[in-house]
From TrEMBL:
GO aspect biological process, one term: cobalamin biosynthetic process
InterPro entries: Cbl_synth_CobH/CbiC, CobH/CbiC_sf
Keywords: Cobalamin biosynthesis, Isomerase
Keyword field contains Isomerase: yes
Name listed for the protein in its UniProt record: Precorrin-8X methylmutase
Pfam families: CbiC
Pathway annotation from the record: Cofactor biosynthesis; adenosylcobalamin biosynthesis
Span of domain Cobalamin biosynthesis precorrin-8X methylmutase CobH/CbiC: 8-193
Family assignment from sequence similarity: Belongs to the CobH/CbiC family.
Entry keyword annotation includes Isomerase: yes
Entry GO MF terms: precorrin-8X methylmutase activity
Length: 198
């Protein structure tokens, strides 16, 4: 199925490219940066987003091979429009609440453990809401194909993203407290739309 680009989206990209030149970025880094800026109308992401082209290439290859996609919350999952497949997101399941209660983890962190049991290594993880979900993922032997780590908040968001970058996992993140479901989904959609284009 070919994605149809709405005229509003086309105009938004024209305006974006009029305001900032990202032609110096490698192709996937540019696609991710543009889609995140498009989703947020925040040009600050141009300098704050941390993309690694090799990691993005690996993530795209994994998506093309059918790697599972895990989202930390349903707001992220709902924003992933290019998937054409189920997205694993157990945060609302009773098992996540029970594990959180039994372990003292947040529900989002508990859901990461449950999701890992389901998907195993090689998944693409998209964290846009809960810093605790990203922090928990970093404690596990998840062997992800890619982590889109863009949680938002004043408590733990910047720190969890710094830990992600320091940990050496293939990732996209940003510097600072901002992030969120829309930008995390946008970053993944940029790759999924590349997948559709080929």
């Amino acid at each position: 199925m070919t994605r149809v680009v709405h005229p509003i989206e086309r105009e938004s990209y024209r305006i974006l490219r009029e305001r900032v030149d990202l032609s110096h970025l490698p192709p996937l880094s540019r696609a991710v940066t543009e889609r995140v800026v498009h989703a947020s109308a925040d040009l600050g992401y141009v300098t704050e987003l941390v993309c690694d082209e090799a990691a993005l290439e690996g993530g795209l290859a994994a998506l093309r091979a059918g790697a599972p996609i895990v989202a930390d919350v349903w707001m992220v999952a709902a924003g992933i429009t290019g998937a054409g497949r189920d997205i694993v997101c157990p945060v609302a399941e009773p098992a996540a609440a029970e594990l959180a209660r039994d372990t003292g983890l947040t529900r989002s962190a508990a859901a990461v453990r449950i999701a890992l049991d389901r998907v195993g290594p090689g998944a693409v993880w998209v964290v846009g809401c809960a810093p605790t979900a990203l922090a928990e993922l970093l404690t596990l032997d998840a062997a992800p194909a890619l982590v889109v780590g863009l949680p938002v908040g004043f408590v733990g968001a910047a720190e969890s993203k710094a830990a992600l970058r320091a940990g050496g996992l293939p990732a996209v993140s940003n510097v600072g407290e901002k992030g969120g479901s829309a930008v995390a989904a946008a970053a993944l959609n940029a790759l999924l739309y590349q997948e559709e284009a080929t």
